[in-house]
Amino acid sequence: MLKGLAQWGQELYWTRFGDQRFGLAPPAGGDTGLLRNGFAPCLLTVLRLAAHQEVGRRAGLDLAAALVRAGHPARAVELLRSGAGRSAPEEDLARLARAADEAGDLDGARVLAESLTDRALRDSALVAHIPAVARAGERERAADLVRTVRYPHNRPRAWAGLAKAVADGGDFPAALGYAARAAECADGGAEMGHALVTAVGIAHAAGDPVLAGTFADRVEDLVRREGRTGAGQRAFLVAVLALEVRGGDLDRFDAVLRSVARAAAAKAAEEARAAAATPHAGDPGPDVLCLTVLARPSPHLDARIVPELIAAVAEDVDRQVALALADRGEELLRGDAGPAGFALRAAVTLLLARHGQVERAMALADRIVEPDLRLARKAEVVEALARSGDTDRAEVLTHAFADRRARSRALMAVVGELARRGETARAEALVPAIPDRWGRGEALVDVVGALARQGETERAEDLAHTIPHARTRARALAALVKASEPARARRLAARAVLLGGWPMVLDGLEEIAPGGALAIADEMTARRPATRAPATEETQRRGGPPGRRP
Q1: Which of 41, 62, 185, 398 ranks highest by number of CB atoms within 10 Å?
Q2: What average pLDDT is seen over the chain?
C-alpha cells in the first residue's frame, strides 16, 4: 500500500498528490496587471491562452458537455472528433446526448443520439432520452419512443424510466401502469430487477404498502433465484430493503439475516463433511472410492447485502432504527460473516459514529490489527461524528491522533462541517491546528465558500490568496466565483484559470462569460489535427500518450 493512502483515504490522497505535483502558487497579486479591469474580454483572453495547458483526461469531455449545455452540440461533436475526448468517441457522444437531455435540449439530444453508429449505444441513448421527453410534458411521445427501442432487453429499462418520470410528476396510477409494462416485458435478470425496484419505489411514493410489498417479494425471489453472487442483483434487494428500513420496517432485513446465518451454518457443515471424507493415514482400503451425497443447497442470500444496506441508509435513517441495525450487525460479526466481515465492520462502525455512539464505534475500530487501517477507521469515525453535528466532541477526538495524516484528515472534516454550518470564525481558527500544509489549504476552500455565501467576499478572497498550492487556491477562487457579482466573478475566474487551468471554471462559465466554452474549443481545434492515431493498449493503461502528465 502507498504510504499514507490508508490514513488519507482514496479521494483525499489522490487530490493531495495531484495538487502537490501541480506546484505552489505564485505570490498573491502577481496577476493584477493582466486582470486589472476584470472585463469579459480579459477572461476570454485568459481562457484562450490557457486552452493548451495540460489538464486531466476527462477535461475534453467536460468541455464538450459544457458546449452542449451552452447550445452548441455541433461544436461539441467537432471537438471530440478532433481528438479532445478519450479513446472511445462513440461512448463520448452517448454521454453528450445525456448531457443534452439534462440541459433540456431535447432536439440536440435526439440529433446526437441519431449520429451514433453503434446500435447498442444508440439504443442506450434513446432509453436515457425517454424520461427527459416525459418530464418535458410529452408523455405520449415518450411512450411511442419506447416502442422504437431496438433491442428487447432495453425495453424494460425504457418503460421503467418513463414510469419514474411520470411518478415524479405526481401521476402515480399511470406510473404504476408503466412499471407493470416494464415488468411484463422483462425476461428476468437485471432487466426484471430494475423494473421491479422502480415499481416498489412508485408504490411506496403512492402510499400503497401492500402493492409495494408484493413487488418487493418478487425482487427478493429474483435475487434468491438468480443473484447469489452478482453485485447487480444484490443492489436490487439493497434498494428495496433501504426503502423499508427507512420506514422502520425491519422484517425483511431480519429474514435476510436468518438466510445469511443459515448459509454460514451450511458452509461450516459442508466443510466438516469434506474434512471427514478426506482419507487419513492408516485408513483401510486406499483404493476404495467413497462418495458423499450432499443435499442440494438452498438459495441463500449473500452476506454482502448487509453492509451494503447499512452503508446506504446510514446518513438518513432514524436514530432508533440505526441502533437496531447496528445491534444486528454486531451480532452477525460475532459469528462468521465470511468475506463480508471487513465491509460489515466498517459499515457498522460508521453507522454508530454517525448517530453519536462513539465509544462503540471506536471499540470496533480498535479490533483492526493493521495500525494504518486502524488509524484510518478512527479518522472516519471523527468524520462521521462531525457530519452528525457533534463538532465539539469530534474536535476533542482529533487531539488523540498521534499520526499527523490521520489528525489532518479528521481536523479537515471538522473544519468543513463547521464551515457548512456557518460557523466560519471557529472553522478558520481551527485551520492552523492541521499539521499538513496542503491540508490547511484544502480546509480553507470550505471556509472561503462559506464566507462567500455569507456575503463576506473581500475576506473570502484575502483568505483564498493565503493558500499555498496553486490548484488548491484555484478551487477556492472558483468557489468564490459563484457567489460574486459578474465583474468580480470574471476577475476571480481568470485568476483561477491562471492557477489551475480552464477546467476549474467550466461549471457556470456561460453565466459570467457567454462564449467562454466556445473560445476554449475554438483554440483547441485550431491547433489540433483532425484525427488521431488509435490508442494502443499501453497508452490506455497509462492514461495518455508518453510524456503527458495524467
Answers
A1: 398
A2: 85
Residue 281: helix, strand or coil by DSSP?
A: coil
Q: What is the DSSP letter of 24?
A: B
Distance CA 460, CA 328 (A): 46
Q: For 451-491, how does the pLDDT look when each residue is reduced to its tens digit (9 = 90+)?
A: 999 999 999 999 999 999 999 999 999 999 988 888 899 99
Cβ burial 386-415 (10 Å sphere, 16+ → b, else e)? bbbebbeebbebbeebebebbbbbbbbbbb
Beta bridge partners of 226: none
**Nearest in space to 46 (alpha carbons), one of 497, 361, 491, 386:** 497
CB contact at 8 A, 431 and 465: no
Task: Give the three cell numbers for residue 33.
Answer: 496587471
The stretches in the chain having pLDDT less than 50 are 33, 229, 289, 293-298, 530-550
The 10s digit of each residue's pLDDT in 337-389 is: 778 889 999 999 999 999 999 999 999 999 999 999 999 999 999 999 999 99
d(CA 67, CA 103): 11
Q: Is 309 exposed, middle or buried (0-12, 13-18, 19+ CB in 10 A)?
A: buried
Q: HEC profile for 139-177?
A: HHHHHHHHCCCCCHHHHHHHHHHHHHHHHHCCCHHHHHH
pTM exceeding the 0.85 threshold for the entire prediction: no
**Are the C-beta atoms of 447 and 432 separated by less than 8 Å?**
no
State residue 32 phi and psi, 5-degree precision: -70, -30
Backbone angles phi, psi at 291, to 5 degrees: -115, 135
Q: What cell was used for 303? A: 452476506
Pairwise CA distance, residues 332 & 354, whole Å: 20
CA distance 309 to 315: 12
- Return the pLDDT at 259: 86
- 427 in Cβ contact with 446 (< 8 Å): yes
What is the DSSP annotation of 241-266?
Answer: HHHHHHTT--HHHHHHHHHHHHHHHH
| Residues listed for the chain | 550
Would you give the DSSP letter of residue 433?
G
